[in-house]
Amino acid sequence: MQKTVNYLHLLPDGSLPHMMDKTPFMAILIADEDVSQMWLWDTSRWLVEAGCRVLLAWGKDAEVWSEAVDDAAAEALDAATPEDADDQAVVTTSHEDDDLEELFWFARHRAAHPVLTLNRTLIVHVAAGPRREELEAAWAAA
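Given the sequence above, the corresponding structure tokens read:
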């Protein structure tokens, strides 16, 4: 199966789009802006519900993002049936000390889910303005 990479720009504290495709994916969350705690939690739940099974957090509050997605995943696992638990597990990492290039290299060459093969990657960019070309170029160079 072909691996795909998509870019999604989210405005801080803005509305979250409806995700039609719920195929499990890896998310690279790049937080350029501060966000409200409520929006961070809502976005974390939204990511897990949308199919995020590996999250790599980078930028502002990377560790907080990672913990919030961990908590959202635990909530989702509480509602899952035991036979679905492995497929519903979410792996998170925070990369506050890494350069963006290191983050993308890790995502392309080392990040993995223990059970699932993830053929989708979503670069989730939380910022006042988009940087699609720059971030897609950094991904391609990794």
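The longest helix spans residues 62-79. Try to locate this feature in the token string yourself.
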